[in-house]
Amino acid sequence: xxxxxxxxxxxxxxxxxxxxxxxxxxxxxxxxxxxxxxxxxxxxxxxxxxxxxxxxxxxxxxxxxxxxxxxxxxxxxxxxxxxxxxxxxxxxxxxxxxxxxx
Length: 102
Ligand code: FES
Description:
mainly beta, globular, Rieske Iron-sulfur Protein
């Protein structure tokens, strides 16, 4: 991801290609929009489901969303894709975890 100050607003035409994304703020909430492989533009709270680190800064294009803190990865649809070091965590079910859509 490109490191820049977040937009204060965004437009759909900024998301032409799959994986295009940008972060922005509304009412002191950090959010990001991202275009999925299905062409759908989704908006999520910009918060990792692990320890709440910010996921996206500025704008860019990505194949997956990677948290810079502990490297949990999310699909463009917000579903949790991979979680390093959780293989032996009892009861952990990654299919039940996803980003919070707005
Ligand atoms: S806070 Fe995102 S992986 Fe830990």
